[in-house]
Design a protein that fits this description.
alpha/beta, Rossmann fold, six-stranded parallel sheet, 42% helix, binds thiamine diphosphate
């Protein structure tokens, strides 16, 4: 199915929103406006905007620490995302979680624990529940290539393959897991090859090409919704900054970084849309201004929200006794 111009404009809005929010969050952290750390995904926008654009609110995504763009595209209002980073009362978790553990139930975003890859098992469980309930919801589980060395990731894919669950497994292969290079974590070049062992299709694509990430994800989502089972999509990409904002990333070369910056997914997508006449300079400027206003409003909301009262520490942590 060809991607419509409206879809392309929607993807363009989210690609820019995600980029601008991410860069702003880096600055806010460096200014000391919130604490802990911040995991930027600048450079990886197409790997999350493509899969999440157009998902239904009752579809579920499982994320790690770096999927800010998935959360935004799936529909978490950025004022709540900011309130979460700032650990304020009005954040969905009422200021309890790690800064980058985003979650928002109304949009089907499950708050991650710190254990990487664990979200894959949880959303696979959601898919099993839907199969039993005869619903056509889908799940997308995001991991980095580093997390695929983790046993639970394999268990989840195996289980999803056996039961033909409505899961899309996305691997964002950004070549580094903290300071560990891919060659020391994974013995294959293309992680999509692993899908064969679980009995479903796997593809490797250019993770910096927005149209490709969207089209490939759409195909996998349609397949999952009609009950034909999972797909594994490996997206080759790169993170521009350190593992988090407290990591100077001295383990990699400047040449590697520069080579990947030339493949920046956001202007690359913009060029295609301009060439096709789908957007023009005026459209670009009004989109960026709208985004700027949304971000300012979100930061103001977060900073005005009070810190949680210490007495609320145990609220929502344990279920009430019946
Ligand atoms: C089970 C587990 N092992 C180790 C860690 C520490 N840790 C946090 S992020 C990370 C690297 C993750 O790399 P990858 O999955 O490639 O994602 P990326 O950070 O590149 O997005 C590690 C090792 C953890 N949180 N959980």
């Amino acid at each position: 199915m060809p991607v419509s111009n409206d879809e392309l404009r929607g993807l363009y809005y989210y690609a820019n929103l995600v980029r601008q929010v991410d860069e702003r969050c880096r600055r806010l952290f460096k200014q000391g406006r919130f604490h802990g750390t911040y995991f930027s995904a600048v450079g990886q926008e197409a790997t999350v905007v493509g899969p999440c654009y157009g998902l239904r609110p009752d579809d579920v995504i499982g994320i790690q620490h770096r999927e800010i763009g998935a959360v935004i595209t799936k529909g978490m209002p950025i004022r709540y995302l900011m309130a979460q980073l700032f650990a304020r009362q009005d954040s969905p978790d009422k200021g309890k979680s790690h800064p980058c553990h985003y979650g928002w139930k109304p949009a089907g975003i499950i708050t991650p624990a710190s254990t990487i890859a664990a979200q894959t098992v949880i959303v696979t469980g959601c898919a099993l529940a839907w199969k039993i309930q005869k619903k056509d919801n889908v799940t997308i589980a995001f991991v980095g290539e580093g997390a695929t060395s983790n046993g639970v990731w394999h268990e989840a894919l195996n289980f999803a393959g056996v039961h033909k669950l409505a899961c899309v497994f996305v691997v964002q292969d950004n070549l580094w897991a903290e300071s560990v290079p891919k060659r020391l974590g994974v013995p294959v070049d293309n992680l999509s090859e692993r899908a064969r062992a679980y009995g479903f299709p796997g593809v490797t694509i250019d993770g910096n090409d927005m149209i490709q990430t969207y089209e490939t994800s759409q195909e996998a989502i349609r397949r999952a919704r009609r009950g034909d089972g999972p797909t594994l999509i490996e997206m080759k990409t790169y993170r521009w900054y350190g593992h988090s904002e407290i990591d100077p990333a001295n383990y990699r070369t400047q040449e590697e970084l520069e080579a990947w910056k030339k493949k920046d997914p956001v202007p690359r997508f913009e060029r295609v849309l301009m060439e096709r006449g789908i957007i023009d300079e005026a459209y670009k400027q009004s989109t960026l201004q709208k985004i700027e206003r949304e971000i300012e409003e979100a930061i103001e909301f977060a900073e005005k929200s009070p810190h949680p009262d210490p007495s609320s520490l145990m609220e929502d942590v344990y279920a009430p006794l019946a």
